[in-house]
Amino acid sequence: MAKRRQIRNEPTQDQQQPYDNLLKSLLKGRERQMLPYFLSGVEYLETLDIEVIRTTLRVDRVYKVMYQGQEHVLHFEFETSSDNDIDIRLLEYHAYFRRKYGFPVISIIIYPFRTRMVKSPLREVSGSKEILVFHFQVFPLWELDAEQYVREHAVFMYALLPTMDGADAHLLNQAIDEMIEYYKDDAEQLGQELKWMGIVLRRADIVPLEDKHKIEERLNMYDNLIEQDPKMKKMRAESEAKGELRASQRMLVKVVNARFPALAELARQQVKHIDNPDTLDLLAQKIGTAPDENTARWLLSPTAA
Predict the structure, then answer these.
(1) How far is CA 279 from the centre of its chain?
(2) 235 domain residue, yes or no
(3) Which domain holds residue 175?
(4) pLDDT tens across 177-205, in order?
(5) DSSP bridge partners of 167
(6) How far apart are the first and last CA of the chain?
(7) Is 53 or 230 the better-scoring residue by pLDDT?
(8) 132 and 152 share one domain
(9) Based on the domain organization, do 50 and 34 belong to the same domain?
(10) In this predicted model, what pLDDT tens digit does every residue of 130-141 receive, in sequence order?
(11) Is residue 133 part of a domain?
C-alpha cells in the first residue's frame, strides 16, 4: 500500500466535474471488461437507464450484474474530493434501487485521487440501540499497484494508471507503447485513451514531477499528430453529428416523459427511427404544446412524419 501523503486543498465541485465525467466516459461501452476490476467475479448484464429514474438524486453509474450466482444492482459513485455526506446519499440510492429493481444492491465509491474517505459501514444509533447498519465499499485507486495492471496487460485501465501506486515515466511509457499497438486500427479510440490519461495525469500526485513532465510532452505530441490527421478529422465530425443526434433523441424523450409519462416508452422506440436532429427538435416543440395525450400519440406515430 502506498504511503499516505498530506491531503492538498480539495477542489471545488466545478473543478472536479471534468474528472467525474471522464470516469463515467471511461466505463461507457466497456463495462463487460472493466467492471470485474472494481468488483472481482462480477458479470456485466446491462446498464440501467438513470435518465428515466424519477428522482432528484444525482447518480453516477448503475448496472444490472450477475454476482455470486445472483442478479444484483451495482452502483458506482465517483468521488474526486472529500464528501462527508456521501454515505447518506448512498443509503438513499440503495433504498431506491432496491425498491425499483428488487435485487440486492452493491454500492461502491471509487476514489481516483488522494482524499479523505468515508468509512463503511454507516451506523444509525439511538441511545444504546442500533437502528440501521449500511455496508458499502470504497475503492481508492491510489492504493492499487500500477505495475500489476501493466503485467496483466489491462489496457482498458491504462488511462487510470497515473492514479496508482508505482506509476512513473518508465511504466507509463510502456503502457503508452502498448496502447498504441492495441489501438493501431482505431485512431479515434487511441486519441481518446491518451487524452483521458493526460487529464488524469495532470491531477494525480503519485507520478514524480519530472516524470509527469516527460509523459505530458509525449501525450501532447501524439495529441497534435492525431488532431492533424485527416481521417481523425472526418471521424470527429461524424462523432459530433452522432452526439448531436443522441442529444436531440434524449431531449424528445424527456419532453414526452414530462408531459405524457404513459407515452415515454413509445417515444424511446420512435426516436430510434429518426436520424435528423432538426426533425426531433421540431417534434419536441409540437409535443411540448400538444393539448392532450391522443394528439401527442399521433405526433409520435410514423404516419405523422
Answers:
(1) 29
(2) no
(3) 146-228
(4) 999 999 888 877 888 899 899 999 998 89
(5) none
(6) 61
(7) 230
(8) no
(9) yes
(10) 999 999 999 999
(11) yes
Asked whether residue 73 falls in the same domain as residue 158, the answer is no
**Collapsed DSSP state (helix, strand, coil) of residue 135:** coil
- What residue has cell string 488511462? 159
Task: Give me the amino acid identity at 55.
Answer: T
- C-alpha cell at position 55: 428522482
28 in the Ramachandran plot: left (φ > 0), alpha (ψ -120 to 50) or beta? beta
Q: Quick one: cell of 231?
A: 481521417
**DSSP annotation of 302:** G
Cell of 7: 491531503
Tell me, yes or no, whether 27 and 124 share the same domain: yes
35 and 137 inside one domain: yes
Closest CA to 83 of 135, 7, 10, 14: 10
Residue whose C-alpha cell reads 428488487 in the numeric block: 102
58-93 confidence digits (pLDDT tens): 678 899 999 999 999 999 999 988 888 899 999 999
Asked whether residue 77 is domain-assigned, the answer is yes
d(CA 213, CA 177): 17
Strands (DSSP E) found in the chain = 43-47, 61-67, 70-78, 105-111, 122-126, 129-134, 137-140
